[in-house]
Amino acid sequence: MKHSAHAVTDAAVATIRERIERQVYPAGAMLPSQRQLAEELAISRASLREALSTLEALGMVAIRPGKGVYVNDASARRGVAWRFADQISLADTYQLRYALEGFAARLAAHAASASEIEWLTDNVETMKGALIDGDVDTAAQLDFAFHLRIVGLAGNAAIADILRGSTEIVMESQRLPFYQRELVLSTYHEHLEILDALRRRDGAAAGAAMERHIVLAAQRAGIHFPIPSAYSSAGGLTLRENAERTDAPHVQL
Predict the structure, then answer these.
(1) Tens of pLDDT, residues 172-191
(2) Which of 27, 111, 161, 169 has a CA that sits 20 to 30 A from residue 77's CA?
């Protein structure tokens, strides 16, 4: 079966990351040349470059033009621990949210009233202010409220109960991406895309925007999970491309 370019890149990211974590490529080491690595992974140089850009955005490697790609020290990578590892993995948390919230957003687009759109708009702008001020806890609470409101609009009580019953876990998964300081306003821009689709009552666009948001939030938290080919458009941006697309300001927390 022919794989999409994005699926090939996902696989390359996962393989290189695993090698780094198992110290096949230890901290400070230079990765094999791009030609050698592309041959080892059986991918094109273009797909490899995209994978390396994603790994650089995650803090795993440093790309030094003309010199090579080097593995960052562990202290230079994202170091925020996942507090709920004994209950559920962070990757599983994002995948659960991806599965449930994309569906909920599709339903919500056909149920959102003008007053609900106004509430969501106020929430998004207030969250932007919290992020600019460096108030991560408030931003995470507003983020959770935004997502839960959309689930409520969908009218699926089972999905709402799952998220409400896992409030602390979901909120922590929303807080972690904010520690990528140079991308701190990415969540704001992604919420705007979801909101725009809801305002237009475009269920397909709302679902895709929600799924893309969760994929990119997971990447900012250091998680890069594979997306089934049927959904590949939801995760089609690397962190670097997303930052360029949204022109996200650099905000120091």
Answers:
(1) 999 888 876 667 799 999 99
(2) 169
